[in-house]
Design brief:
mainly alpha, elongated, 2 helices, about 60 residues
């Protein structure tokens, strides 16, 4: 049971990370400012990475 929940949470965290990164990238490309796109995408990826690390540490 615990391994199933752990796998589910890792998958959910990965899905959230990909979704946020895609959303930020898509929104910024729509506006057309590539410099701001890179900066915000990097911030989003770092934030999601931190979130996934926190979730994994809680599940250990």
């Amino acid at each position: 049971m615990n391994k199933t929940v752990s796998g589910f949470m890792k998958g959910m965290g990965t899905g959230v990370a990909v979704g946020i990164a895609a959303g930020v990238a898509g929104a910024m490309l729509y506006e057309g400012n590539k410099k701001v796109l890179r900066k915000k995408a990097n911030k989003a990826i770092k934030a999601v990475g931190g979130f996934v690390d926190d979730v994994q540490s809680v599940l250990r």
